[in-house]
Design brief:
This protein has helices spanning 8-19, 21-29, 32-41, 47-56. By secondary structure, the protein is mostly helical. Helix 2 packs across helix 3. It is globular, with a radius of gyration of 12 Å. The mean pLDDT is 87.
Length: 70
């Protein structure tokens, strides 16, 4: 199977996820209601979270490498 190529649309949608206050909170705290919400919707309901995973190679709720978790 051919690997999905990252398009400019994917990058744009991933940027929305990167600036989303709910997703940012989930990545930062790794706990709480925002974290649970993002884990629930990211795979099937949110095109921004799906694009974030394609572009960055990690789920929208996973912490950014090199950043401390609070």
């Amino acid at each position: 199977m051919k690997k999905h190529e990252i398009t400019s649309t994917d990058r744009f949608l991933a940027g929305i996820c990167a600036s989303c206050p709910v997703c940012r909170r989930a990545r930062k705290t790794q706990a709480g209601s925002a974290y649970s919400f993002v884990r629930t919707i990211e795979a099937g309901a949110c095109p921004f979270c799906q694009a974030y995973e394609r572009v960055h190679g990690r789920k929208a709720h996973e912490p950014v490498p090199g950043k401390a978790v609070r």
